[in-house]
Design a protein that fits this description.
heterodimer, A: alpha+beta, Cytochrome-c3 Hydrogenase, chain B, 4-stranded mixed sheet, 3-stranded antiparallel sheet, 15 helices, B: alpha/beta, Rossmann fold, 5-stranded parallel sheet, 10% strand
Chain lengths: 429, 259
């Protein structure tokens, strides 16, 4: 009788603390776990009793990689509770800063965290020795994303300029217009990067997923829309809790999410791309076709290409917004509190990020629920690992381990976020 | 400097949002130069490769919130010549230190249906409460240029140039009109350590103290002024000081004074 354990006690090139454990007994897969040991930080608990205007700044601290997802999700939920709509140039500026976050987060993951897996490097620094131009261009792309965050938000990490109702101060037209040359360079450099990634060896690993993403009638949804899926879901955000339910498992400080009456679901770039392909720009659709992608993508290893298409979309959308920008009369819409429950959902780089707040007539927060995209994806990642390991049991432990790590990194898991939320152990018996 | 003698850098994470270590990867113009000067020996967020300790410099992000982490930080100290804490979590306990004012068991039951699976300490505390720390970088998040300055100084064996004065000084350097004096806006600038570049006032909002208390801050004087001239209520003052550096001594005492 032989037993094999493959474990990674501290997964690298992911955000936060997780581990992987795979147990193989008599050449059969016995157990797979994506363990999350990130210490819980109790945001939902300590937000109670705070003022509703404080939620964007406080929830930003759930994640240093995608603070906009939290700042905007919280803001939109509070505006929903108070019956306020933010439109016009303020809404355009919100989309623009979100494009900055998509560019910064996607490029970080594609070039620095995921590409080394495909090319067999331990990290991007070592990759830079053989591919200096690629890494240099990627760093410049990432910086342009961060520049958008700085000009609109004040700084890259935990921007300070977003608030319930809009912004503390809106940027001048000339400051925004100054972004244009870099955005135009970024659009072309992204197409070159996608062409390069197309040459990476991709495992053939198509899966049947229920993709869940937001959909908006007029645009590739980022900050507003209904929740839809390829298996019949089509609901307003306020029906989230009736449709997607969480449960707790012993090996994780992140809660697991399932679709009521069905199974696990998959959120993030693959879901958005596959559900909203028709709303991408003609250049994005053409670049996707040239990269070998169809109008939907069910191979998570190709997520690196799909992220590239979303970066291209972000550059094109940023160019559109910057080109038409006029300074609005006021930096924000006035929001007066009332006793109500509000719902907010935005497309974080890793997928939908849901917020629900109940506030009282004085604006004091009474109840909170926040669901991060990685928490939703966690059971789907475990299922991918199971299906990937079973036909590949003949691989050496070392090779199997690296491929499993890569399969986890397909989701760009953000464990810091997921914790309400990675370590690989392969155990072969 | 030959490869064999490059100083070894390690990066550790405790309870945190990842933002401060991300600051290193956000040094897009400087990252490859830094990687040329130091051996990035143990930085899991960036690399699979881990070189064994001891390390010359360890950057520590996050606060101590579990018994396991309280043991792990002791090991970090043993393996490191210089320990630098980066950010408000590591230097003051972070936003998660808000639990220190409440009963953590109640917090667990609010978030988790099966509290018995969750192991956590009653408090979130700074790294310096557990081990001697050689240097601290403030901020939520840290300023990446302060991080580059710190690494450069350590490489050359000089003292890092990290100012200890208040955010007010940075507003004066920038020529930003004081919003507290002009409009009575709640601003923690007079009692908060500089380093961010006084971003918030330049965006028409008051400082929310994310760099923590400056040396010898006169918090009670600021509170009295805000009450008398800014019409601020005690509960507003409690919340103002109870933010990302709530457990830093001066801010903690000031918030308790208004409860």
């Amino acid at each position: 009788m032989s037993e094999r354990t493959i474990k990674v006690d501290y997964l690298a090139r992911v955000e936060g603390e997780g581990a992987m454990y795979v147990k193989i007994k008599d050449n059969k897969l016995e157990d797979v776990k994506l363990k999350i040991f990130e210490p819980p930080r109790f945001f939902e608990a300590f937000l109670r009793g705070r003022d509703f205007r404080e939620a964007p700044d406080i929830t930003a601290r759930i994640c240093g990689i995608c603070p906009i997802a939290y700042e905007l999700g919280a803001s939109c939920a509070m505006e929903d509770a108070c019956g306020v709509t933010v439109g016009g140039q303020l809404r355009e500026l919100r989309r623009l800063i979100y494009c900055g976050e998509w560019i910064e987060s996607h490029i970080l993951h594609m070039a620095m965290l995921h590409a080394p897996d495909f090319l067999g490097y331990q990290d991007a620094i070592r990759m830079a020795k053989d591919h200096p131009g690629v890494v240099r261009d990627a760093l410049r792309l990432k910086k342009i994303g961060n520049d958008i965050m700085v000009i609109l938000g004040g700084r890259e990490i935990h921007p300070i300029n977003l608030c319930v109702g809009g912004f503390y101060k809106v940027p001048k037209k000339r400051e925004v217009r100054a972004l244009m040359p870099d955005l135009e360079w970024g659009r072309e450099a992204t197409i070159s990067l996608i062409k390069l990634i197309k040459t990476f060896p991709m495992p053939d690993f198509k899966q049947d997923y229920e993709f869940v993403a937001m959909r908006h009638p007029k645009e590739y949804a980022i900050i507003e829309g209904r929740l839809v899926s390829n298996k019949g879901m089509d609901i307003p955000i306020r029906d989230y809790d009736k449709t997607l339910v969480e449960s707790q498992v012993p090996h994780s400080t992140a809660l697991h999410t399932r679709v009521v009456g069905r199974d696990t679901c998959h959120v993030g770039p693959l879901a958005r791309y596959s559900l909203n392909f028709d709303q991408l720009t003609p250049l994005c659709r053409q670049t996707a076709r040239e990269a070998g992608l169809g109008p939907a993508c069910f191979n998570p290893f190709q997520s690196i290409l799909v992220r590239g298409i979303e970066v291209l979309y972000s550059f094109e959308e940023a160019i559109r917004i910057v080109g038409q920008y006029e300074e609005p009369d006021a930096p924000r819409v006035e929001v007066n509190p009332r006793a109500a429950t509000g719902y907010g959902c935005t497309e974080a780089p890793r997928g939908i990020c849901y917020h629900r707040y109940t506030i009282d007539e004085g604006g004091v927060i009474r109840d909170v629920k926040i669901v991060s995209p990685t928490a939703v994806n966690q059971p789907t990642i475990e299922r991918d690992l199971r299906r990937f390991v079973e036909p590949n049991l003949g691989m050496t432990d070392e090779k199997l381990q690296w491929h499993c790590e890569q399969a986890i990194r397909n989701y760009d898991p953000c464990i810091s976020c997921s914790c309400h939320f990675l370590k690989l152990t392969v155990d072969r018996s | 400097m030959s490869v064999a003698t490059k100083p070894k850098l390690a990066v550790y994470k405790f309870a945190s949002c990842d933002g401060c270590q991300l600051s290193l990867l956000d040094c897009e113009d400087e990252l490859l130069a830094v990687a040329g000067e130091v051996e990035i020996a143990n930085f899991p967020e960036a690399s699979r490769a881990v070189a064994p300790g001891p390390y010359d410099v360890s950057l520590v992000e996050g606060s101590i919130t579990t018994a396991h982490d309280a043991e792990r930080i002791q090991q970090v100290r043993k393996e490191s010549r210089v320990v630098v804490t980066i950010g408000a979590c590591a230097t003051a306990g972070g936003i998660q230190a808000l639990r220190n004012f409440k009963d953590v068991r109640e917090f667990i039951s609010l978030v988790y249906a099966r509290p018995e699976y969750i192991q956590t300490l009653a408090t979130s505390t700074a790294i310096a409460d557990h081990i001697p720390v050689d240097f601290e970088l403030r901020g939520c998040p840290i300023n990446k240029y302060q991080l580059i300055e710190l690494i450069s100084a350590l490489l050359r064996g000089r003292k890092p140039n990290i100012p200890k004065h208040s955010v007010c000084m940075e507003c004066k350097f920038r020529g930003t009109v004081c919003m507290t004096v002009a409009r009575g806006t709640m601003c923690l600038g007079p009692v908060t350590q500089a380093g961010c570049g006084a971003i918030c006032p330049s965006f028409d909002r008051g400082c929310y103290g994310c760099f923590g208390p400056k040396e010898t801050p006169n918090t009670s004087s600021l509170s009295a002024w805000l009450k008398d001239n800014g019409d601020k209520r005690p509960d507003e003052l409690v919340r103002a000081f109870r933010g990302f550096n709530a457990w830093a001594d001066a801010f903690r005492k000031e918030s308790e004074a208004h409860e």
